[in-house]
Amino acid sequence: MHSSEILKSYKLSITESRIQILNLFHASKGALAHADIEKLSAAMFDRVTIYRTLQTFVEKGIIHTIPTADNSVLYALCKDECKEGHHHDNHVHFICDNCSTTYCLEKVTIPQVQLPEGFVKKQADVIVSGVCKNCI
Amino acid sequence: MHSSEILKSYKLSITESRIQILNLFHASKGALAHADIEKLSAAMFDRVTIYRTLQTFVEKGIIHTIPTADNSVLYALCKDECKEGHHHDNHVHFICDNCSTTYCLEKVTIPQVQLPEGFVKKQADVIVSGVCKNCI
DNA sequence: GTAACTGCAAAATATTTGCATCCTT
DNA sequence: AAGGATGCAAATATTTTGCAGTTAC
Questions:
Q1: Domains in chain B, start-ordered, CATH in brackets?
Q2: Which of A32, A46, B101, B103 is positioned for an S-S bond with A36, CB 3.0–4.6 A?
Q3: Range list of H helices, chain B
Q4: How long is the CA A49 to C1' D16 vector, in angstroms?
Q5: Distance between CA atoms of residues B44 and A49, nearest Å
Q6: Could you tell me the pTM of the whole model?
Q7: Interchain CB contact of B120 with A (< 8 Å)
Q8: How far apart are the CA of A20 and the nearest CA of chain B, in angstroms?
Q9: Exposed, middle or buried: residue B128 (CB in 10 Å: 0-12, 13-18, 19+)?
Q10: Per-residue flag: A42 CB under 7 A of strand C
Q11: What is the pLDDT of residues A25-81, one digit of tens each?
Q12: Measured CA distances, A64 to A2, A32, A55, B70 (Å)
């Protein structure tokens, strides 16, 4: 599915920056940070546009954020199951300590966790770090 | 163990700000962000000192960072098993969507994840969000 | 034509660094 | 006394907001 079709299916106006940013995600094997997009897009559009585009994509469920232990926020494409406001990224994320690439391990589903009495789970994220297959 | 003893055991100089910040962590039932510490300490010491103290504590393995999906970085006390540069927080973290308190669920250990061929795990974090026992 | 999107400027926040001074050991 | 820690100022970096101009539909 082309970027423009994706945008259309989410009822978003099809604009140059949105297509470009979406293309970057499709071209990337890993997750992207705001700074990555800024570099990759080579200042084709404003930094603010990137912020706003990412925010819109997250709200619509096109991309999701990945928690990281440092201050950076990473974004990656959501799969089909994601709906507006309701993400189901039930896969594990892997961050390579060496090359910093972040993978969505689609095949690795998040295991069940048994929470203590009184805690209600809405979402669960699993982030594994180590060395990826390209850096061994 | 008192804060000053902890500092001593990690070979850190015992200073007012370090004791105070360590006390805050012991008094808190959840994890703390830089901003929390700034508020709780009521400007008793400089914002920069907080940055530097947190960084030192992380390096020494006194506290660890908790990944979050927004840009905030959370810190929580490490348990005994943590050594310098080598953290073993093999427990699940829970962030309440309502009150934003972050719990270290010490009793809930991180389940095994089966990684694809070529990926080597060094660390794993599990962050569950939802509603905590005080907000139900 | 209208609503939505973008770019620019600027404000608000957050983080890092350098250096002189003070405190711990 | 010496090394390390702190406070202050300032440099950087990051994120948000407002508004006027432009573009998509």
A1: 3-130 (1.10.10.10)
A2: A32
A3: 3-9, 16-27, 34-40, 47-60
A4: 12
A5: 39
A6: 0.83
A7: yes
A8: 24
A9: buried
A10: no
A11: 999 878 999 999 998 888 789 999 999 999 999 999 999 998 887 778 899 987 654
A12: 19, 11, 10, 11
